[in-house]
Amino acid sequence: MAYMEQIDSPLLPETLAVAGAFDFAAFTAADVYGALGREQLRPVDLAALLSPAALPLLEYVAERAQAATVKHFGAAVTLFTPLYIANYCENECVYCGFNCRNKIRRGRLNETELADEMENIASTGLKEILLLTGEARRQADLDYIGRAVAMARNYFTVGLEIYPLNTDEYAYLHKMGADFVSVFQETYDPEIYATAHRRGPKRVYAYRFHAQERALRAGMRGVAVGALLGLGDHRRDALTAAVHAALLQKHYPGAEISFSVPRLRPYARDTLTDKAGLNDPRGFRLGAGVGERELLQVMLAFRLFMPFAGITVSSRERAGFRDHVLGLCATKVSAGVKVGVGGRTLAEKGDGQFEIADSRGVGAMRAAIRTRGLQPVFKDHVYV
Amino acid sequence: MENGRTNQKELTQDWLEIGGRRFRSRFILGSGKFSLDLTRAALENGGVEIVTLAVRRANMGGEENVLDYLPPGVTPLPNTSGARNAEEALRVARLAREIGCGDFIKIEVIRDSKYLLPDNYETLRATELLAREGFIPLPYMYPDLNAARDMAQAGAAAIMPLGAPIGSNKGLLTKEFIRILVEEINLPIIVDAGIGRPSQACEAMELGAAAVMANTAIATAAKVAVMARAFKLAVEAGRLGWLAGPGRVLESRAEASSPLTGFLREDETD
């Protein structure tokens, strides 16, 4: 699309070439032990840890991952919460609740509502926020997002999970007070990507892929990468996301890199296809879903491959899972999550993107972290 | 030879002096990797008088604020963690002053998220900027003699070279270079980062370091309080070893009396 900036970057072909080079079925237990014995993992070691051969050895992998987490993060676990400020969307993504064909309530918070929601969040003690929108440049324009960022910075460290922007637009939001940008590629497989994103600006794979680089070039302090595990082959997507992250760090050494690990759960095909409107005449087929064991395998592999990178665990996961991955591999956790537009001080103005499985508030989350001998961290950033 | 009384006097007057202030303890504790509940136990058992803290973590008036957990008598040494260049370090230092941490500041300027190695060039610039604004800068640096000299010249109150990559617990990998700093720089040399075991802390002190800083080694120990005490004793032992002046150590073989110079005549008069 015409407004989409193209940057000069070698990362896309490099990422796909590195991540496409391994056959997961070919790895053996010996490869997994070999990977665990290395101080600095190579992409081939990461692939071994993501392979089926590593599943029976998950306990050993977890031991190593826990040691790496403790070494790099100590007891610290950072708390944050997302605030959906608008859910208008022009994309037709088969897996997403904001899909433009879905008949849901749409809305965006006005400035009074933004202030009320932020006051409410601040009163829980939180100091870090993630502002989210759907992709609709008309209804949630840059100026609007900039105003929301400027308000949020008075209370919080501000991260963004919004539609991809050009470098100058990221620079503007950075100037307004945002320092972190999350963009998830959903799947790195270009063919599945094309099928899963049927309509809208999100169809342009490369523009989305280069979003983190544009954000970093614009002065943002950190970026998050991730794939919606289960949309394509979750092993390949996890491997590619991690290679993407590693190359970002290599090309932008100062960047703070983190991972998010959303997944599609195992499901009864009929139920989901009916529910999400997935009866695609062009034949889109979701994978079988990703179970907790496979999800943990991915998180542990990320930890060992990039021991210094943050890993955020979503409120889509149940409390018992989240509690156990803290200190083991995850370093950041959301609390008091609402996935509708607003919803803390006023009735939701728009419907949610997905269902949450862990609705614990800040107090309960903080207590859970402390119970595990870990240290809840409310603030870990200064905007300079 | 000194008698026992002289030794005793020397020891009681053995202060760590930084920026015009005196400290008895030469064991500096980091705070970033601790559960705050354990911080106090570590401080008490380690006999710690200086604790470093990241300004970015200070949550004034908010939840889980590290400054609320420091017992009276412990001096907070704020660091500029998160700064990627000298100007950012200056801004973080000003924040430290605003929240009441005084003028002491450990300069950390890092633009590598993987190894967290300090950037000596920007750290030197930051030392200049901060000293000019009246701060008492303690730059965390890669042990390079030229950089250390320049930092001293720029107004550093101490030099804090790394022993090994931060959090690595690998010990004194840079031992030879730290030894050179100890010999050449007329400021306290505080070994920071990489010290993983009490024996390594002891070794750094024997080498002539003025103090040792550790965080991960204590915070990740199974028994935090016990490890803090172990570090305290190791640092004290190493200091005493340095003050005592280590004896000569033979390298690989016994030494004959004078194998190379024995031919010399002592009396050439006949």
Summarize the structure in words:
The complex is a heterodimer of chains A (384) and B (270). Chain A is globular and about 60 Å long. In chain A, 39% of the residues lie in helices and 12% in strands. In chain A, strand 7, helix 11 and strand 8 form a beta-alpha-beta unit. Chain A is built from 15 helices and eleven strands. In chain A, helix 3 runs antiparallel to helix 11. Chain B is of the alpha/beta class and 270 residues long. In chain B, strand 1 and strand 2 form a beta hairpin. The model of chain B has no long low-confidence stretch (mean pLDDT 90). At the A-B interface, helix 4 and strand 11 of A face helix 3 of B.
Order of helices and strands of chain A: HHHHEEHEHEHEHEHHEHEHHEHEHE
> Within the largest sheet of chain B, what's the order of strands?
5-4-3-10-9
Question: What's the name of the CATH homologous superfamily of chain A?
Answer: Aldolase class I
Average pLDDT of chain A, rounded to a whole number, is 92
Count of alpha/pi helices of chain B: 9
Unreliable residue runs of chain B: none
Helix content of chain A: 25-40%
Keywords summarizing the entry:
heterodimer, A: 384 residues, alpha/beta, TIM Barrel, globular, B: 270 residues, three-stranded parallel beta sheet, 9 helices, 37% helix
Q: Mind sketching the topology for me?
A:
The complex is a heterodimer of chains A (384) and B (270).
Chain A lengths: L10 H9 L9 H8 L6 H8 L7 H16 L2 E9 L7 E2 L17 H13 L4 E5 L9 H11 L4 E5 L5 H10 L1 E5 L7 H7 E3 L5 H5 L1 H7 L4 E4 L8 H18 L4 E5 L8 H8 L15 H14 L4 E4 L5 H7 L6 E3 L27 H10 L3 E3 L7
Parallel strand pairs in A: 1-3, 1-10, 1-11, 3-4, 4-5, 5-7, 7-8, 8-9, 9-10
Antiparallel strand pairs in A: 2-6
Helix pairs in contact in A: 1-11, 2-3, 3-11, 3-13, 4-13, 5-6, 6-7
Chain B lengths: L3 H9 L3 E3 L2 E3 L3 E4 L5 H10 L4 E5 L20 E5 L6 H13 L5 E4 L12 H13 L3 E6 L3 H10 L5 E2 L13 H10 L5 E3 L5 H9 L4 E4 L1 H4 L4 H21 L26
Parallel strand pairs in B: 3-4, 3-10, 4-5, 6-7, 7-8, 9-10
Antiparallel strand pairs in B: 1-2
